Amino acid sequence: MIQNSELILNPDGSVYHLNLLPEHIANDIIFVGDQNRVEKITQFFDSIEFSTQKREFKTQTGIYKGKRISVMSTGIGPDNIDIVVNELDALVNIDLKTRQPKEVLTSLNIIRIGTSGSLQADIPVDSFVMSKFGLGLDNMLRSYLIDEVSNVAIEDAFIAHTNWDIRKGKPYAIACSEKLEKIIESDKIFKGITATAGGFYGPQGRVLRLNIQDEELNNKMDNFDFDGNRITNLEMETAAIYGLSSLLGHNALSLNAIIANRASGTFSEDPYKAVDELIAYTLNKLANS
C-alpha cells in the first residue's frame, strides 16, 4: 500500500496539487505552460464539462468534435512536470481508495503545445516544431532509473560536442511517442531536438549580473547534429515530460509555434495567430485519431 505521505490526497479524495479525481480527466490531455492559455484552447470546444484550478494548475475537460479532451496548465519548469505527470498517472493507474497500483494500466496521450524561439536560421517564425527528442539539461529525471528509456548515444555525443561540465549533471535524451508522432506529423512541421533547461536565465545562457559557467554553450548547441537531428529550440519542460511519460507508459509529444528566430533576429508579426493555428491543427488531428 502506498503511504499517505507518499501519495497525498485532499479531503475530497483528489490528488493533492492538481485537485483532480479520476473522472475529471480524459485520456487525451493537452499541456500548456500558462494557465491563461487553457481557455485559448477550450474556447474551440463544443462543450466543457469540468473546470478547476489550484495554484498554477488549471484543468478543463470537454468535447471537441466528439473527442473528450482535457487541457491543463503545468506552470514553468521540470519540477512542475514531476508533479503533474506523477499525479496524472496516479489518477489512472492507482486505486486512490485502496492505494494500490492497478493490475491493468492505462496509457494517456499527452501533447504539449507551447511557444518557442528557433535556434536554426532555416526554421522561420510562424512555423511549427515537433520535438523528436527531448534533451534534458535540468537533471530532474536523474532522480529516477532511466537507462531503459534514455538514448545514451545522443547524450554522449552532446557531452563530447559541448565539452559539458559533468558537475552540472549528465544530460539525458528521451524520444517522443512514435504513436503521437504519426498522428500529428505533416510536411509543414519541422522535427528536431528540443533542449530542456532547468532555469530561464543562466541555464539558457542569459547574462544579467551573474557570469555563467559556459558562455559558448548556446553556440555549441546551435551546431550540434546527431544523425540529422539538430537542436531546434530551447525551453523548460519537454524532456521532463518525455522522460516521465516513457517511464510510466504514457505517450507524449511536444509541439511549439515558433514566434522568434534567434539566428536571424526576427520575431513574428502576429504570434497569437501562430499559436491559434497550432492549437487548431492539433485539435483536429486529435479529433480524427
Automatic annotation (TrEMBL):
Residues 29-266 form the Nucleoside phosphorylase domain. It catalyses: uridine + phosphate = alpha-D-ribose 1-phosphate + uracil. It holds the Pfam family PNP_UDP_1. GO terms for biological process: purine nucleoside catabolic process. CDD domains: UP_TbUP-like. One of its GO terms (molecular function) is purine-nucleoside phosphorylase activity. GO terms for cellular component: cytosol. Its EC number is 2.4.2.3. PANTHER family: FI09636P-RELATED, URIDINE PHOSPHORYLASE. This is Uridine phosphorylase.
